[in-house]
Amino acid sequence: MTNTFWQEELETLDRARLEALQAKKLRESIARAVQSPFYGKRYRELGLSPDSIRTIADIVKLPFTVKDDLRDAYPFGLLTCPKTDVVRMHCTSGTTGNPAAILHNQHDLDSWANLVARSMYAAGARPDDVFQNMSGYGLFTGGLGFQDGAEKLGCLTIPAAAGNSKRQIKLMMDFGTTVVHSVPSYLGRLHAVFAENGLDPRRDTRLKRLFIGAEPHSEETRLRIQELFGAKAYNSFGMTEMNGPGVGFECACQNGMHIWEDCYVLEIIDPETLQPVPDGEVGEMVLTTLDRQAMPVIRYRTRDLTRVIPETCPCGRTARRIDRITGRTDDMFIIKGCNVFPIQIERVLMRIPELGSDYLIVIEGKPEGDVITIQAELTPAFCTDNFKELENLRRRIIADVRDEILVSPVVQLLSPGEIPRREGKAVRVNDLRKA
Ligand code: AMP
Ligand code: ZN
Hints:
binds zinc ion; four-stranded antiparallel sheet; single chain; binds adenosine monophosphate; alpha/beta
């Protein structure tokens, strides 16, 4: 059997047909959603029903759903079916209070796996690829989400999970891995372990494609990772509340992530006024599931900031693309009156070849004003005791960061490996003012 996940009819629908399909699926989702205690009560109070939606533009009549709604409804308040129909749950990492738990029936898992397979195919993966998933398995969706999708596509899949770099490298070399999935922050560390063992992934592996996502990263980081591994890196967007991976993915053109609009409604709003912004303008992404039965989530405020790329993609897919995520509304910090996103600093650091991929931004409130300190690791190749060289580098970083964020940082240069490692998503900011 040949598996192809180029689902041409759905992926190239013209706008009118796509929107008609979305309106139909939204009506179905509402009909299901009102079976849940949460949406049942809310929509009844507001007099909303499937008939409220004639065209997809009517979606603005529906209220937003926010993370606290999911937390308050934990664990079963959004469930639309008997618990016996549920086959899987995932949840967000929530460090305090209730997490947001998402429940799936078998249809939901099949639909999700199809979207991940479609995404991987769009980015060039094929059934004869060997796919190694370096994501945590368990409640985090990057593990099982990619696993099911890659199996559906027909790849030989290696569920390596996160960490244990030496074993990752051995598996990669023994099984001839051609495609990996990882958080981008891990790949720099993995490369360091290759180098420590006298290996070079460009020479010693068969890697062709790297799927990177789950955390904000800049184009500079992508270019650096591609250079280190000699393979193309594709951006993957997902979030637990919307299943996990497979919501948006870059195609072979590597120019923004197609959001699979036959299964999600994509809106970008101004987070202050909550009004839609025109295509091309940055705002908060709002997503609605259209193909989830056990737990539809409607007009979910993701808190992720991005924009729709207005041009059509040369690949022929008509699903609109979003630009890379600049950060979450709650990632932004204010220092000396300037609004700063960590990714702005990352962009500067990753342009400096003497620096490795790991860094930490520490912010302290001091009597004389807030201080931002950037701790950045050097690459092993540049580790030097030459004070003058180090001082010149430090000055260059201060100047480049000041140009970007309009505030002068303190810069501390560290040896490779000095910043503590943790599995999963990297923590880049330590704001001691909040401690
Ligand atoms: P989780 O539900 O734990 O997988 O986290 C989802 C969040 O991870 C999203 O809301 C984004 O903030 C972030 N995220 C996921 N994919 C990307 C990506 N490709 N680029 C930037 N941030 C991402
Ligand atoms: Zn495309």
